[in-house]
Amino acid sequence: MIWPRSIGRVSGHLVNTMTGRARSGTMADVNGHESEVRFRDPPVWLQTLAIDDIDVVCPHCGCRAVVSAEPVEGAVAMHWPRRFVCTGCVSASEWQPKGGSSCWGGPVDPYFRLPLWLQERCCGGQTLWAFNEAHLALLADYVRAKLRERNPQRPGLTMVARLPPWLKSAKNRDEILRAITRLRRRLR
Q1: How far is residue 21 from each of residues 3, 7, 14, 29, 37, measured CA to CA in Å?
Q2: Rounded distance, CA 40 to CA 150, Å?
Q3: d(C-alpha 142, C-alpha 51), whole Å
Q4: 25: which strand partners?
Q5: What is the pLDDT of residues 99-139, one digit of tens each?
Q6: Which residue in 68, 90, 88, 64 sits closest to 77, CA to CA?
Q7: What is the rounded distance in angstroms from the CA atom of residue 147 to the CA atom of residue 24?
């Protein structure tokens, strides 16, 4: 499993501080995938996942491109300037928070509104999407878990709490995990 940038240690166990879960709590299933029994809703918002690079489809050549943040001290992360770069056709552009607006909650990047590289149809025509590998890992952990606990400090306000019902439904678990596997292949 790829862990996001923020990793820490708690009681000697490797812990993903984004999800707050220790790796020792996982076990491999018959296919060698980590099988989570419990998922605790981490204090993560969609905007938190956009701090890392966002994988998008280049509008010029159709290759995988990246929207990256350019941190500004004292500014809120979702208002940092962004840079779009495609290594396939060498196109680039800038997004500035002044005069530019962002749009959250769909299969496009919130700044340039380009289609996300990581999107896949599943569950009767629904679109499963993720900004990057860390976002995809968080979704996989959630979907895979048989027991899902809400965040007690911020119930209803986290990204996981706002997932659509079709993604939360246990009856869609296998189909969603297959879609996540296909999306992970696109990252290679």
Answers
A1: 11, 10, 8, 18, 11
A2: 6
A3: 20
A4: none
A5: 667 788 889 999 999 999 999 999 999 999 999 999 999 99
A6: 68
A7: 17
DSSP states along 58-124: -TTT-SEEEEEE---TTS-GGGS-EEEE-TTT--EEEE-TTT-----SSSB-TTT-PBBSEEEEETT
Tokens of 6: 């923020």
Residue 108 bridge partners (DSSP) = 115
Q: Do the strands 64-69 and 26-28 form a parallel or antiparallel pair, or are they unpaired?
A: unpaired
Rounded to an integer, what distance in angstroms lies between the CA atom of residue 15 and that of residue 161? 21
pTM: 0.78
| Residue in the structure block whose two tokens are 């079709």 | 166
